[in-house]
Amino acid sequence: MDLVIKNGTIVTASDIYRADLGIREGKVALIGRDIYADEVIDASGKYVFPGFVDPHVHLQMTIGGITSTDDFVTGTIAAACGGTTTIIDFVDPKPGESLQEAARKRREQADGRVAIDYGLHLTATNALPQTLEELPILAKEGYTSLKLYTTYPALMVEDGELLRLLKAAKSCGILPVVHTENHQAVEFLKQELLDEGKIEPRYHPRSRPPLVEAEAANRVLALAGLVDCPVYIAHLTCLETLEIVEIARRRGQEVYVEVTPNHLLLSEEEYERPGFEGAKFVLSPPLRGKRNQEALWLGLADGRVQVVSTDHCPWNFAVEKQLGRGDFTKIPGGMPGIETRIALLFSEGVRRGRISLNRFVEVCSTLPAKLFGLYPRKGTIIIGSDADIVIFNPDKEVTLSYKDLHQNVDYCPFEGWRVRGYPDIVIAKGKVVFREGEFVGEVGAGEFLRRI
Amino acid sequence: MDLVIKNGTIVTASDIYRADLGIREGKVALIGRDIYADEVIDASGKYVFPGFVDPHVHLQMTIGGITSTDDFVTGTIAAACGGTTTIIDFVDPKPGESLQEAARKRREQADGRVAIDYGLHLTATNALPQTLEELPILAKEGYTSLKLYTTYPALMVEDGELLRLLKAAKSCGILPVVHTENHQAVEFLKQELLDEGKIEPRYHPRSRPPLVEAEAANRVLALAGLVDCPVYIAHLTCLETLEIVEIARRRGQEVYVEVTPNHLLLSEEEYERPGFEGAKFVLSPPLRGKRNQEALWLGLADGRVQVVSTDHCPWNFAVEKQLGRGDFTKIPGGMPGIETRIALLFSEGVRRGRISLNRFVEVCSTLPAKLFGLYPRKGTIIIGSDADIVIFNPDKEVTLSYKDLHQNVDYCPFEGWRVRGYPDIVIAKGKVVFREGEFVGEVGAGEFLRRI
Amino acid sequence: MDLVIKNGTIVTASDIYRADLGIREGKVALIGRDIYADEVIDASGKYVFPGFVDPHVHLQMTIGGITSTDDFVTGTIAAACGGTTTIIDFVDPKPGESLQEAARKRREQADGRVAIDYGLHLTATNALPQTLEELPILAKEGYTSLKLYTTYPALMVEDGELLRLLKAAKSCGILPVVHTENHQAVEFLKQELLDEGKIEPRYHPRSRPPLVEAEAANRVLALAGLVDCPVYIAHLTCLETLEIVEIARRRGQEVYVEVTPNHLLLSEEEYERPGFEGAKFVLSPPLRGKRNQEALWLGLADGRVQVVSTDHCPWNFAVEKQLGRGDFTKIPGGMPGIETRIALLFSEGVRRGRISLNRFVEVCSTLPAKLFGLYPRKGTIIIGSDADIVIFNPDKEVTLSYKDLHQNVDYCPFEGWRVRGYPDIVIAKGKVVFREGEFVGEVGAGEFLRRI
Amino acid sequence: MDLVIKNGTIVTASDIYRADLGIREGKVALIGRDIYADEVIDASGKYVFPGFVDPHVHLQMTIGGITSTDDFVTGTIAAACGGTTTIIDFVDPKPGESLQEAARKRREQADGRVAIDYGLHLTATNALPQTLEELPILAKEGYTSLKLYTTYPALMVEDGELLRLLKAAKSCGILPVVHTENHQAVEFLKQELLDEGKIEPRYHPRSRPPLVEAEAANRVLALAGLVDCPVYIAHLTCLETLEIVEIARRRGQEVYVEVTPNHLLLSEEEYERPGFEGAKFVLSPPLRGKRNQEALWLGLADGRVQVVSTDHCPWNFAVEKQLGRGDFTKIPGGMPGIETRIALLFSEGVRRGRISLNRFVEVCSTLPAKLFGLYPRKGTIIIGSDADIVIFNPDKEVTLSYKDLHQNVDYCPFEGWRVRGYPDIVIAKGKVVFREGEFVGEVGAGEFLRRI
User: What pTM value is reported for the model?
Assistant: First the structure.
């Protein structure tokens, strides 16, 4: 063995046990007791988690002339420092650009500049024949998921396009990941608010209320039902949408639900912060009333919600967010979170008894890996899996602050929150990448993941 | 009194009682016992119902170069002979035509050629400023309802248009009447079936399954919820849509539901008839599986369904329906029914114990009158209301046949059905228009109703 | 005509119209315009309502050695002064007493001492053969409803008894009226609270939470489903029970729901009043959180709730309620309301746009009359019905106070509430019984109603 | 290592991977590749499952003078031959017997006579102080679950008892396992059927319809909600109960659901078999209509159902079942199944695509182990767990017949069913107990499991 992690408590989606973990050539090679190796890490009193998988991040995403503030370098370093050893970002083709071309360019941006392994979802903005033909080709190259938007003019597809894309996705085993908000409704409500002079961040949630989200979710699920295609609902936020999902499941549909720490832990009260502070919390769908948080936690615990991702999409408050001063609809939507997900979920989820330790691993690592074709390489600790490992100190206390985090953004939505439980050491493919609070890995060590 | 109806059992939406009914100048003028008049009709052993209101008919509707086979003359005669003394038809503007112009032309087609009073729903096929401006003007002229389609290329409106139309309707007290089917889904499914060579009528229901209807209903209700506008769902057919309506009501929305005798009494098995016979039953949304019928009857009984209309839209089997031989998507959609609604509802509803006598009157007369601004002139028997009266023999047995009916169409979907209970005499505005099986009224006696 | 009410606006469950109302020999005899009579009441600008029916009152009910403070004299006078011209009280047999004997005794208490007509529900406290045999006999004598309790040791029946009683009721056309709370759960929770020293009125709602009510309702509806018997749920209070009712209806059961002004308008916050004041609001099931009120109003508006009764059961705060000082479980349960129902429902329901004028009449008069076999004698204004009439001034403003009310009790739960709309004149069987704020009728004029 | 299983595909609730499995001293000791041991089993092309756990069996259960036909010897041999290496049976105290005394006697029956490890659920038939006091004592001794019945006179507890038992269970970490059917309803329906001369087996399901089960489930969940106690619903069979469970979960309750292969795969049509054959399928709750099967499979797949057990309770058709000739209520309730569960679930569940391979292991092994305090000793394959292993040939085809099975009963409900996939070798605590179709283990090798 090249490395052995001794005396830790290994936790997977279903198991918890004491054992030594032997690593060889970047893979988990042996699990047992009293394993010998040249290098030893003592994990007594620590949890040994599979590296966490964040299947929804937006690094150096350019939109409307601005670019999200974490690039592949800073973003993957921040991920690693937070316990995430795999991310899935997006291929967003420009108008007229083919998916293959866009994928190639995106790979160019990332390859050699990532600290951890990464995958890419495709984003389809049309259902032209060429697009449909590219899907099976790209699926074979490891792009086995497809982001679809029901809003945003540059990205959205209409119902007929959705149907063709869902059918095509189904036929080549691609999983659709859908952002569900009714575009026309959002446009209408925004205009109404602006016409009434309601321009502050506090009006953002009123421009995208729960019905707007639940409507689009119901529509997408109905269309998917017609072509018998599974659907992954990105960042579900509210009771109304959850009810829609349950109805679809009762009629036999395969539906997966993703939530984010933002929607689990923050409420629409944040928009009432003085001045322009609310802009820090502008994202879509927006933060909701507190009853929704409770429902999301219940769903996470009892199996109705499958994944916790971050939808990390950082904008500096002092710079990009300021574009929306005077018009909340111009505030770039998105919040940072790639580095804080694991600590928050452990403290607020596991410690508070809302979810079990196994479930924590399942929704933050195993299910994202399985749903997106990364398993068994990622998402678990078994013989042959990548040695992506988080040695986690359940008692380490940290006060979150943007100053200490590695995210390249000038605020943290959870500024000042105290968490208990934090990664001690993070290992990616057998190499230590985070230790004593610092990134110690190598930019460029991450690879593109051909997902299955 | 000009006329007295003696010894009958008067039935309204809420009452049943024995009394004489005095009519003067076409109005109900006196209710009591032992009323004297020059002319007397003895109604011993008969029910005295308010004239029935059919709020959803399509007479001489031209679409795709063909015209529905009942014009205002034959259609209103058939209505009268079946106990219906008020209909509401539609103003369907041609491309580029203003609503006001279309309304004027539609009035020209009908005025002087109707045997009974009639109203007109507007149909909006766009949300252009001119259209929105016309709505309050036309509302004041008695067009207080607005048909909206989510399917049919010539008619449908998109979500943004829907929102503006719903908002405009709300602001001037117009009730939206919505045909809910997802257009893109229908197009997609039709194409798939045709591509597989599935061209017979039996494939019609598979091109418009329940999810297609329920999706559009949910979308319309969500949008209406955003602008706080009531909605009347035309011809709801299935459990899935009913569930959606219940969810909307629980969140406080005002939703009205219409069903038709076709969907209450016939099932998708009709499409399995040999040869091209299934074409007789092609309508949209299509006939459904039998479990849905049971659910519609329950909803009708317990108050979740408000109206039974006919959606009368007749095409001759030997002529127009033949257009779809070789391609079910070209079968003109629609079925006759304007004359048989009341007899069917009484026999199959009241006699079988599915609905009460009061509820029968309520859903076939009072609620359509109230929801569409005809009350108290229509829909009930009270002092001052129009003397539209059906003297109904609960024991008269009739075998339905297109040969005996007055509908101008070469088939009856209920051919050979035996009903028990049939109108003896029908009175419109104080004049007998139907007696001994024959129309004895006057074409041209009907008037346009300015609805409130 | 003996009396004519001129120029009023007659309102029934389904109609609203201007007409004169002719009364002869205590009955509605003629409806029209310009009717002549010896005595005329001008109702210009007033509503002419059918006398209201309160199907759930407890006058001079003796329980645990104390007697509710309104006897048949004061209680029926108070009812009349509030616009209620018919009540239905209860026959509560003593241990070992036959239903027939108990009914005879209860008749003795009431006959000659009631100001308005009254009926009596039976209460079955067992399902012994004798009891089951008495039901059809008493049904023929006009006792066509049967109160059943799932709690209170002296009254409650077990599931097996319930089944036999529901089956027997079904077979002789008796409607079961059920108080649904799980007795063992209430006893358990009460004991837990007392064991923790929680003795104040504020703990009352915690001893009977919504689940306790919804559980019993579900049980009763399941049992009724097995024997195909309709059920009337008395004083439903919460969302949880309403959901249970909707499930039962969807499977085809006939279920009626009653609510009270207390649960519509007051919340559990009342229990937090200082000192022992909360005891004034102790009733079972208790007042609930505000979300439930909204749901009850919605149900009332859209047809899921059928009746508003009072469950009038007054105890003086200074006397009987004091029995529970030091132990909330000993507070006599019940609140007054027989006189304030109509004014409250009109002000808070009709005026605030929560229910329509027709629906107001329907739930306070017509449906109670119909469901309990009083129709068409009571519950409406039609030829031949009793001339029970409320001439109601929609603009009269009154501040409610126990000092002004005729209820024989030392407090009013709505003390200080300002209502707009109040009865001007109340007529029972053709005789004015209330005018200018005073009872002007005759004690003893009321009769026992043989219900059908 | 004492034994190594080489080249197999290890499957746990969350993982699937190729590895060798080293066993030492009856425990899993090493997982890796190329492990050396004295004894080697080649598992190429086979699945290596954790031994399956059947948490609901009734061996040598005496009731009404007869004893279920599998005793601890034959029953545990049959279990082992079917791939089940752990069972949980019951301690059913006799009237007046303490739980501790009953547990001691039950241990005497089993110890030394079991081929595999076993646990025991307690059964509480009362909530007397002594019983409540015994619970924490017995919990410490490994009896950490408590069967409660809402039916069967000898076993059932009333609501008040239920509350006290649920509260006591909660306080000492005992999981209640509840058989939910409304006793009084069953008694009533049985009597009605017998009174009508309906004595054949086909009437069994009509004496215990879905509402009877769903009612009791709702009641138990409501009561559990009041004391915040988790509940495990034994053998749920129908849509109605599943809806109740979902409502409870939405309000935050912890509910686990168990189903059996009988209810997943057989329908009430079995009761229509000629002659007395239907008696073979008499169990409670009964087999249901086919729509329910579909719903149970969906719930199993999407996580709403947690466990598949057998409720194995065999009676010979030629002997005990004959007691009910002439009166279906006297047919001993119960069906065999301890040996066929795994083969059926694999063939009908995994092979038909209804559930995944991981889910199969989860519901048949891991979750039963976790919920009942056997994990991590049982239910998975991790370092330190018992070496209970099933080497499963996914392609082995077997036609089920009672003649070939080891169950001591004269029929198999699945007689003639062809399964594909069957255990090749079964290992219990490191020893092979089943090989080449025969039991090769040792009676007496099984131990009592102190559950946590």
Answer: 0.97
